Amino acid sequence: ENDRLYGRLVRLFLAPLIDVLADSHDDPLLGYLGAFRYPLAGEFAATGQLIRRLRVQRGWGLEIGTLGEAYATAGFDGSAQVDLGVHEHDHRSVSGPEGLGDMSRGVGGALFRALADAGIEPDFRSLPERYRQRGLEMVQQYAADAAFNGLSYDSIAEREQVETYAGAIDPPGEDRRLPAWRDAPIDPGEIQRLSREAVAVATER
Q: Coil, helix or strand for 165?
């Protein structure tokens, strides 16, 4: 896109992190997560039956948390990925309250929560360094790919991002997922009543 490589959070954080986790944990969940070409696209569809069973991750971990839940409830056989043809990237800075640095913490937290649900316990003492090494190896590969294809590429900036993302690798904190819809304390009758009241107020204006 625009003669540059985008998808930095996937390329430089999530993909190498899943790779090094798969090196030390032979678990199908990691194969499942690694099979998606762009797991942070923010676009997915599910049946009503399935969506009622998913615990929704808050914040930047929504996509990877949803995939973790989908694996737990539907597995490989109940999942698919579809190429929609074009994906417009939201080009964010690395720093700042909504930058890629903050996003990496949300994505990492959701990933490690999904792993914990599956009984996978990473060694968080060695994981940041193992991730850093793999991430820097991938920067070299991306530099070669960019040069071969005549794309603009800033190796220094990408190496700096790997260092930033390494700081996001921590054990998952408090589980802040929303309850599955089927388990949520929601009264359908009350929702219907409130909806009717809202429609009535809107139509009176």
A: helix
Domain range spanning residue 165? Answer: 8-204
3 belongs to a structural domain: no
Q: Number of folded domains in the chain?
A: 1
| Residue 2 lies inside a defined structural domain of this protein | no
103 touches 92 (CB < 8 A) = yes
| Measured distance CA(13)–CA(20) in Å, rounded | 11
How many whole angstroms separate alpha carbon 156 and alpha carbon 159?
Answer: 5
More reliable by pLDDT, 203 or 156? 156
Going from the C-alpha of 16 to that of each of 23, 28, 82, 169, the distances in angstroms are 11, 17, 23, 12
pTM of the model: 0.85
Structure tokens at 103: 């996003």
For 147-165, the pLDDT digits (tens) are: 999 999 999 999 999 999 9
Fill in the amino acid letter for 84: L
One DSSP character per residue, 13-77 reads IIHHHHHHHHHH---HHHHHHHT-S-TTS------HHHHTTPPPPPGGGHHHHHHHHHHHHTTTT
Encoding tokens for residue 196? 């009717």
Alpha carbon distance 43, 41 (integer Å)? 5
